[in-house]
Amino acid sequence: MTTRRALFDDLVLDSAARLEPRIGPGFGDVEFAVEDVPPSDPAPWEREGVALGRTFPAHGTQPARIVIYRRPVESRAQDLRELTAIVQDVVVEQVAALFGLPPGDLDPRYRDGDID
Question: CA-CA distance, 29 to 50, in Å (whole number)?
Answer without folding.
Answer: 27
